[in-house]
Structure formats: structure tokens, C-alpha cells
Description:
The complex is a heterodimer of chains A (555) and B (496). With 555 residues, chain A is α+β, with helices and mostly antiparallel strands. Helices cover 27% and strands 29% of the residues of chain A. Chain A has four domains: 3-68, Phenylalanyl-tRNA Synthetase, Chain B, domain 1 (2-Layer Sandwich); 77-270, Phenylalanyl-tRNA Synthetase, Chain B, domain 3 (3-Layer(bba) Sandwich); 278-320 and 329-346, Phenylalanyl-tRNA Synthetase, Chain B, domain 1 (2-Layer Sandwich), CATH 3.30.56.10; 364-549, Bira Bifunctional Protein, Domain 2 (BirA Bifunctional Protein, domain 2), CATH 3.30.930.10. In chain A, strand 12 (205-208) and strand 13 (212-213) form a beta hairpin. In chain A, helix 1 packs across helix 3 (57-68) and helix 4 (111-126) runs antiparallel to helix 7 (235-250). Chain B contains 18 helices and 18 strands. Chain B has helices spanning 13-24, 31-38, 45-54, 72-80, 83-93, 109-122, 146-154, 164-173, 206-211, 238-252, 266-271, 301-312, 328-332, 341-350, 392-405, 447-453, 466-474, 487-492; strands spanning 28-30, 58-70, 97-99, 125-130, 133-138, 177-189, 199-201, 217-219, 256-257, 263-265, 290-291, 334-336, 356-365, 377-386, 411-418, 421-431, 435-445, 459-464.
Amino acid sequence: MPVISLNRADLLSLVGKELTFSELEDLLTSMKCELESSNDVEIIVEVTSDRPDLFSAEGMSRAIRNYLGIGSFYSFKKHPGSPIELIVSESVDTVRPLIVASAVRGVSLTEEALRQLMQLQEKLHNTYGSNRRKASIGVYDLDKISPPLFYEARLPEKIRFMPLEHHSELSGREVLELTPKGKEYGDIISKSPLYPLLVDSNGKVLSMPPIINSEDARVSVATKNLLIDVTGLDMRSVGICLNIMTTSALERGGSLQCVEVKCKDKVLRTPIFADSFQDLDLKRAKEISGLDLTISEIDSLLKRMGYETEALENGAIRAKIPPYRVDILHEVDLIEDVMMAYGLNRVQPLFPRVHTIGKPLEGNRLRARIRDLMIGMGFIEVATYVLSSRDLMVNRPMLNERPLVEVVNPVSSEYAVLRDMLLPKLLGFMSANAHVEYPQKIFEYGSVVIVENGSPKMANHLGAVTSDARVSFEEIQAAAFSLFKNLSKDVELKRKSSSLFIEGRVASINVDGMEIGILGEIHPQILVNFGLYNPAVAMEVNVSKLMNLESLFRG
Amino acid sequence: MSRQGVVGMSLSQSEVEFLNTLDLLGGKAVSSTIAAKMGVPESSIFPLSSLLAQKGYVKITELIKEKFSLTDEGCYCASKGMPETRLMDLLKKKGGQVPLKELSAVLKQNEISPVLGWGKKTGAFSIEKRPDGPYVVLKKDVPHYSDSLLAKIENGSNSFDEKEYPALRDLISRGLVVKKDQKEIVVELVANPNRDRKVTVSVLTSEDIKSGKWREISLRPYDVSAAPPALKIGKKHSYLEFLEEVKEILFNMGFEETEGQFVETEFWNFDVLFQAQDHPARAVHDSFQVKNISLKIDAPSELIESVKLAHESGGNTGSKGWNYRWDIETAKRPLLRTQMTVNSVRYLHSHKHPPVKAFSLSKVFRPDVIDSRHMVEFCQLDGIIGDQGITVRHLLGILQEFSRQLGFKRIKFRPSYYPFTEPSIDAYVEHPKLGWIECLGAGMFRPEVLGPLGINFPVIAWGIGIDRLAMIRLGINDIRELHTDDLGKLRGWGWW
């Protein structure tokens, strides 16, 4: 979820009302914000990704004004002039086909207003823009531009302009190679033979989306008229970004001038502030909220959330969705807003009288018994991660290469595969405790994921290791026999071979004619691989194969 | 039950023998006497009697005694006779006169002049000059006690008559005898009927019990406040035990436990939960994609179709949908589950009749940057209640009751956002020391989630980052310590 920084004075001036620390903090919390820190100057909040309109002070102050009842329904001034023309070339189709734009005339920008605009742009890029791939935003000083505008794609070497924060002109390829933003986002367009470019009627470059703007149309506190464009791959994403940017900029004063986007086969006037409505049924509102609300109460609660409402017949209300609200898909979304306006901490909790029978998962009882028996035999329980390294699961225990569930995008090679057995994990645990007092007797009961014929199968395993200056095969053998005797099972050991154990000192564990595990004395080469210098005996059992023991009264 | 005789004043075998010996000696004796009677060196008597005195069995009085002993010269004289005796014997044998130069036959050079002095003083003999040299001539037989005195000292005697003292002083002045002050103790039994004299031992043996010897012995008391060695006991893992406690609370509240698979399809993990395929939280960097395996979407085609419709247009759920083209290939991709709600919706799909109350508590996986608060693998709890007439008030009610069961007295709520619930709520519980802790996320499943699953009653869902509470419960500040690989820490980990 995005974390944003707000300037207290700027926010309050946009709200237009003095608020105490706690009043403001309560209001922010009522807007789904989680307060991270707050002082005289700066407030840092985590906002939720469904409400991009709250990614900056402008939208936040609008929501607060509505909530306090000092706002009015959403409205904005329209610039009387005709729309700005933006002509889209077909050449962009293969690289970055979509563009929408708007202009806001007569804004008054402060340093903080600029910071908020940049922050909003960045947060939108990271969320709805999928790190600029799906949508990226450009903001320009309109007075430095001569419409009409042209959106086209050019060979990189045919592109030359001075990127923001750069002091010389670069070619399209140089922008990708030399500028920080080019390095960060270059792969979005670098595979295309043509790069997208926004230019004005004089051929002045505005930007090379989605990488960087030109220094020539830079916005400053002196800027009075803003041009905003959003390019991208997905109409919904570019639309959301443009609406949020435009409605936020309008909060700083000014009027909206539309942009007419002319493609080969259609003309689109942006931003698209289409009238959109959501109906809310009173009965449904009561059923979901559990609150005994009247139509007029719901009506006034919706108004506090910024909706213009209209009463319908049959006890329903129609709410007009403002262009900055992108999260209203269903009447339940309005009901949430009603409850936010009502105040969640005013709602009386009610314990649900739903009578059901509590029931543990199949296997819980057996798990509990096995853990009890293991601690009874003096083993201490450990909990290792399911995620492991291939080195730990395959190389160090010198086990065969085998299919493991492997993470494509691991954070660290330590956590790159899912374990399919416990003993390598337990040896890994012991290797971290080579200097802790012996004897060491450890066990783990946990899930493993075994890949069988290409599909993952989860199983519950028990692993146990005993290590001391002297240990005997008999010790682990006795533990296994005691364990199964106390589960009313006869156990049969059969000679087996495994690279993990010393030849001749390893056996399969067989119960009810099924091979369910292995035990033996760990091979000294494996001990050395794990940095262990005391002999160790160990066992591992697939408990899932014993699951038929679970029923209390089995045949 | 009488424990008489089992625990008493600690007495060793030799201490008991000492006291018995003292009885035989009339209850009072000097150390040397006791040593002789017990047949032990006198030096061993001092520590024994001192221990017994500390324990209050005896009283000790110290005596200073003169002790005489022979020097090397004295020993020589004791065996050869005193020089004057040897000279007198020689004179008597040689007829009363011996040339002075022949005295060396019986006297050492250093003995000659003292002997001549003694003869002159007592008049026992005289020196006469003769033409062939000086002669020692016997005059009269002068008795002296020195030989018998030397023999007496050599025999260890230390008591002398009054008349022996001049000779004793003479022997001392001639360097044949030395006098030393010696300490001696008198040990006297203390009359104390409350103290028995049982032998104290440190180990009670099986033999002692069988033979009845335990009645005669006394067991040495221990320093009960001293620290014992640490036991390497077998025990359950404290973190897993906490999870068991939480499960027990939920069983008692009537919840059924469910479990799924670590490896899920995006379909169940995201699509059924109405997370748009282009939703920011679905980006590759927010979940672990996996390779090496093939998974089919284990869902009937009707479910797949209605999930697709819910995403694209809302289908028949009353929703506008996300208004994009849903792609089944994306839904097929395998990943490590990112939350436990996936188990709840799977449970709902197989339990379509109310009431339902279920939870699952297990591992989920997210590619976070690993630090003290974030781990790529952690536990999450997800619970659901579904029935006709369930409302947000019930959701708050279950959150309140569950947190009470965990021991938190107060709870507060704020609106929040989860893609699959609406309304969505986060809850904070109040910890007596740490203040408000945000740990619960909850909401009512969206119609776009319930509709495709064929659920026609409201379902409330809530999840808890149980590891956060486990850390508080165990008093640790680093989430990685829940899976500590420090055996010493596990051995020492207290519970409560």
C-alpha cells in the first residue's frame, strides 16, 4: 500500500479549517489511512490502493471537507476555450498505443503543491501504472508548448532532446543508456524499433514516454497552465491516472480544458468524466451493515462521502460517482462508505449466534500424540522454514538431483525451494549449533512438498536426530520402536541404502507392510559437509501415510 | 509419618567413632590420649574435634605443654653414653689413669674440653703432668643423671621430677636437648541429649533401604539454594505451542479447521478472490512464482466461467466488474499462496449450506525484503462465519470476542481495504504495555467472490498476522526468532 507524505499546513489550508492534531488524525483514520508518523510539519500515512484519489493532499483535503460537511458536491470550472488537439500517429500502435490528456488553466502552485503533484504521479506509476508499463504520466508547463500536439513513434536515433535534470541533448538510445530513469524503465520500450514521443506543433519534444520529460516544458512554481498526459497499454489504467491527476490539479484552482485525442479511426475527448451512478437499496444497506438506518440517514451519510444523491422509488438511493472515485463497482462499496461516514467505532459489536461444532484438522490428534512421544523421549522440538536452499536440500546432504518446487523470483537463494524432506533441515539446524552443549536431540514435525510426476504433493513428516560424542544405531532404532509401539504399531526394519547414511547402518521403517520412513547413522562425509564433528543417528517418517490412525474407534 | 533418624545433624563415620572413644575415656581426654586410643595420628584429632565442636558435640580447651627432644648430638650421646660416662668408664678400665692424648678413643674432639671442665668442677678427676705427657687421673666416682634423662627424653617422656631439672637445663645448655612449647587440646563431651550420633551419608542406597540401615544413618543436608545443572529436556516449540493455543480458542468457539496447499494456482489465490489480473497486488514482485511443476485449475468449468464474468462485467453479481479481458492462462500460473483466505474460499466452495464456521492457520509466502519485521515465510490465520442474517456488527462482534479470548480487553476499528471484502475493516487491540496493536484485518466477502462460488448467504472473513502476536507473546523483537536456529535459546525459552 502506498505511503504518502503530507504537509500539515498545506493540507489544512486546502481543507480550509483549523483542526487539532487529534481531530486531523481521527479524520485520516476515517479515510482508511494508517498513521505512520506525525509532527508539526509532516504527516506520513499509509493509504489504501483502492483510493488513488487519496494519494495526495488535494484529494485528501477534498475527502476531509466532505466528511466535515464543509464541501459541496464535486464540481469544477470549465475553460471556455476549445479543446487542445492531440494527433496520434499509427506508428505508436506497436510500442505504446494509448494516450489521453487534459489541461488545467489558471492553477496556483507552491513548492508543496509541486511536491504533492510529483508524489501523486509517482504513486500512480507504482500502482495503477504497474511501474509505468501500463500507464505513465507526464506534466508540462502548457505555456511553453504550442498546440496541436503530436504523439508518434520514431527511430531512437531520430530523437534528440534535453531530458529533465540533464544539461545536454541526447538521442533516444542515449536517454535509455545515460539517464537514471532511462536505466530504470528503459526495458519497457527498448525492444521496440521505434520509441514513443510527444511533440508540439514546432517539433519541440515534450517527453519520451514512459521514460522522461523534456527540460523544455518543465513545470515550476511559476507555471500557471498545466498540460497532463497519460500514455500506456490499458485504457482503464490510463483513464484512472488522468482522472486522478486532473481532479487533483483542479483542487489547486483553475479550470479544465479538454484535449481532443485524434486517432486514425476515432476521436476521443479526454479526460472522460462520464456520469456514473450506483444505486443503493435501503434493505440491503441494513442487511449488510446491521444498522437500523433510515433513507434520510443514509442519504446524509452518502453526502458526507462526497456523493450527490437522488431518492428512487422502493426505498433506494441513487448516488452519482465523482470522476475521481474508481472503486465503486457495486452497492456494497457504497455501504462501506455509509459505514465510514457513520463511524465504525460507533457501531455496536454483536456476537454472532451461529452454532457449529469446532473440529480440528484431520491429523491434529496424531500430530499431538507424536509430538508428546518425541518430547517424552527427550527430543526438543525445532521449527525450520519450509523454504530452503537447493544447496541445503541437495548438495550438502549429497542427495540425488530431484524435482523440487522452485521459486522463480527468490528474495535470497536461502529461500528458493520448498523442502521435500526434513533431515537436511535438521542437519542444517545442528550445523548452526555445533558448539552448543551435547548431547543434542532434536525433532521437527512439519509439512514438506514432494514433487510427483510434475505435481506438488504436501505431506507431514517427522524428522529426528540424536548426536553426541558417541551415539549408536540402537539409540534411534529404540526411539523408532518406542514411538510406534506407543502408536500401537509394530515396526519392521529392512536393510536399505542411502547416501545420507553409513552403508550397513541404515534401514527402511515399515509399518503395516508400507515403507513409511528411514533411519540410520549419518555418513561422516555428510556430517563434515554440515560442519558437524559428532556422530549422529537420525530418522524421518512420512506421517501422512499413518493418517488412518486418526479415527478414535477404527476397525 | 515419622521421619526421625533420616534427617539429623550431619556426622561422619569417624566423627561417631571419635565421640564413642571419648565416652570410653570418661567423657574428657587430651588429644594425644584420644589419638592413641583410636589408633590414629594425633594430627587427625584436631580437625575432627574442631568439626564436632562446631556442631556442638564437644568443647575444646587448649593447653600449652613443654616438649623436650634430643638434638643430633643428644641422639649420639643417648646411644654412646654421655661423654663423662664414657671417660669414667675408660678410666675405670685403664686402672684410674689414661694419657690425655688417648681420650680421643672414646671422645670426639669437641667433647674433650667440656668433659675436662666437668671433671675439674666436680673433682671427679684431675690432670697431672708426667714426663710422657699429661694424664687424666680418676679421683672419685661422681654420679650424674644425664644418661637416664637422655634415655627418658628419647623414649618420648615429657614429665620430669623436680631433681631432674638441673640436669635437664645442663643438657639444654650443652645443646643435647631442645625445649619447644607444644599445643595440646583437651576435648570434653558436651551433655546434649537432643543430638544423636547417627552416621551421616550423602547417598541413600537401595541397599540401605532394603537392609533397614536407613534407620541408623542420617542423610547429609544439601545447600538447597545452590543452582543445579541445567537439564537438556525434550519440549515442544514455544511458537508452535502458541499457535496450538490459538487453535484451541477457535475450536472452543465452534470453528472447524481447514488446510490447503502451499502451491496454489493464481485462480484460487487471486481470481476467486476478485483480485483483477492487473491489480497492483498481483504483480510478480508481490508473490513467489514457481517452476518445475504443472498444475491444473482444480475447479469445475462453471466456477471458472463465473469468476471470469465477475471480473469482466460483474456477471450476475450486481457488480460492474473490473472491465477488462480476463485471461485463463494467467489464472493457471502456479505460485506459493500469499494469504490464507484462499483456504476459506475453497472451504466455502465445498460447503454451500449455512451455517459455516471455519478457519485455517498455516504458512503463507511473500517476497518481502527480509528484516526484523518481515520474513518471506510466515503464519497467517483466516477465519470465516457464514449464515443468513450475518452483518458487519457480527463481524465486529467476532473480532471483539476473539481478541478477548486472546486476553485483550479493548478493541477499536478503522475502515480498510481488501480486494475481496467490502466493507473492509482493520482492528487494533490494546496491549497493557505496548498500547494499540494493529493485527486484525476483516470484512464481508464481496458479492463478486460469493456469487461465483454459489454462496447465497453473507460471509464474514477475518485474518490475523499471528506471528506479530506470537512475537509479543514470546517477548521477541525479530520475526526471524520465531524460527530460531539457536538450540541454546530453545532450551532456555520460558513459557509464561
